[in-house]
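hiii, so i know i said id send this last week but things got crazy w the move. better late than never?? heres the sequnce for the chain we talked about at the cafe, plus the structure i predicted for it. fair warning i was half asleep when i ran it
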Amino acid sequence: MKEFEFLQPKSLEQASKINFKNKFNSILYSGGTDVLGLVKDGVFEYDKMINLKSISSLKYINETEDGVRIGALTTLSEITGNELIKKDFPLLYQAAKEVGTPQLRNVGTIAGNICQRPRCFYFRGDFHCLRKGGDECFAISGNNKFHAIIGGGPCYIVHPSDTAVALTALNAEIIIFSNGKEKTVHVGDFFILPEKDHTKENILGPGEIIKEIFIPKNNFNHVKYIKIKERGAWDFAVVSIAVAAKINSNTISSASIAFGGISPIPFKAGNVEKLIKGKTKKAVLSSNINYFPEADPMEMNSFKIHLANNLVKKAFL
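okay and structure toks below
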């Protein structure tokens, strides 16, 4: 592993300036559950590692009149242990509980979770793939069982974050700090498809740091996060679904639905939302509709279409 300088800025302003000044050879992190692994494995090398953990002002869960604001460095365990989140934003609670192990949730932060890099074994392995500056996505002709079926190309990674899927269904906003200023971005505009930029997963540029996440109040009375995994509790989703719906007299009056494991970004399923609106739960459960006509699977992952369709039903059991 290459030697690096370890920096611990005491403020968001200081961290932003350091990162901007060293834009090509520095990395921001807090919990380190993802970044440190990438560095140790030699996937990336940096001259400066900027640890944000000392910025205590980024660690909070504050209720407001219009929702809740969560500091970027709030750990996933703090989120799952918070009564306000459990009561008013249970979808985020359910998703955060699905992340890794208790030990990982104790150190992993909400901002780190939504900004983690892909789990693609070509990206993390000894392959000079497209996302690392190469000229080929090895998944196209290789093992593509866990890759994208919607929105892929030229790179076919899937976004690995559980909480990002829930935040997408909850129409969250990301507050980004840079150069003494803040900007607010809807979660749907935060993540980037490979066709726009196949080297990064989100819009963050040099010196830009997530300050907080805002989730607006809602009137959903049926929420569910379901995660299909191949192995144990620590695994990443093969396919996952986050549903936030309003059901009146057993009829779905509105729904906000997002999927993980099928696209390079948390996939907002507008087609599913449209097709189930006005339907009873029984009608959804008995339906054989293919909700994903736009899916374009590769040789080994067409099963994800079947899984995703069935998760729609399971979410309304």
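btw The domain at 222-314 is CATH 3.30.390.50 (Enolase-like; domain 1). thought thatd interest u
miss u guys!!
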